[in-house]
Amino acid sequence: HLTTPQLGSMQAALYSDPESGRALLFAFQFGDPALAHTIPLRGLDPSRRYCVSVRVGHKGMVTENSDIPGRELAERGLNIAFPHAGAAVLVELNPVK
């Protein structure tokens, strides 16, 4: 978990496979009044670069950013914007070869 579970907050969890370098981030707007957050992604390899695909909402709108350093994702974090209260975001992180 990247956040502490509590009502009225944004929740996020990162699941990563150290061997392949692939990771999934699940983020939920769980009653937090803010619709945008920056989430530091602990658990990624700082020496790798990642292609980041963000899927938002029930229609699965996708935005993609390529070649982001793992160190930057860990230190500066990833900006997540929820379309509305109660929304969820799925982020796929794949290492750039």
Structure overview:
- The protein is mainly β.
- It has 1 helix and 7 strands.
- Strands 1-2-7-4-5 form a 5-stranded antiparallel beta sheet. It has a two-stranded antiparallel ribbon with strand order 3-6.
- A hairpin with a 4-residue loop joins strand 4 and strand 5.
- The longest helix has 6 residues.
Question: Can you summarize this structure?
Answer:
By secondary structure, the protein is mainly beta. It is built from 1 helix and 7 strands.
Secondary-structure element order, N to C = EEEEEHEE
Secondary structure category: mainly beta
Low-pLDDT windows of residues = none
The count of strands amounts to: 7
| Arrangement of strands in the largest sheet | 1-2-7-4-5
Beta fraction of the residues? over 45%
Most strands sheet:
5 strands, antiparallel
Counted by DSSP, the helix tally is: 1
Rg from C-alpha positions? 13 Å
- Kindly report how far apart the N and C termini lie: 27 Å
Proportion of helical residues: under 10%
> Could you tell me the mean pLDDT?
87
- Which outline best applies? globular
Set out the fold topology.
Blueprint: E1 9-16, E2 23-30, E3 36-39, E4 49-56, E5 61-69, H1 70-75, E6 78-81, E7 88-95
Antiparallel strand pairs: 1-2, 2-7, 3-6, 4-5, 4-7
Observed structural traits:
mainly beta; five-stranded antiparallel β-sheet; 1 helix; 7 strands
